[in-house]
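In this section we walk through a basic example: taking a raw amino acid sequence and producing a predicted 3D structure, encoded as discrete structure tokens. The instruction is simple. Fold the sequence below.
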Amino acid sequence: MKFKTPFIDEGLSVAVEILSGVMAGANFSTKIRKWTPTDINQRANLGQLFAAIDPCYFAPNFKANLADLSSRLRKCQPIDPKKPVLVPGDMEAAAMKTVDEAGGIKYLPDQLKACEELARRLKR
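The resulting token sequence is shown next.
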């Protein structure tokens, strides 16, 4: 059984809808067109919200607290013991480590050939 705190998710959804739709002068809620073949020629008029927030301004201990939370989450028992619990950024960090250990990004011969051909066509 899944327990859900009432209104938390809904409140966040409404806040995003207000900031990205209503305040942007764009369509919102059910006013956004459907993504079906019959509606494809209608203007979507979707609003966008981009926010740059420095969490340290609101919580001076943010970095330490985030590291603590991440550590606690990683220690949770995974559903599949072969797949540990990951937090955002873990997969990217593993990919960066692989690239660093390999000495760079490894390209397949076909990829390099395609790039060389494109460079010749563009005369670069």
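Looking at the output, two observations stand out. The radius of gyration is 23 Å. Helices lie at 8-22, 55-58, 62-74, 90-102, 109-122. In the next section we compare this with other chains.
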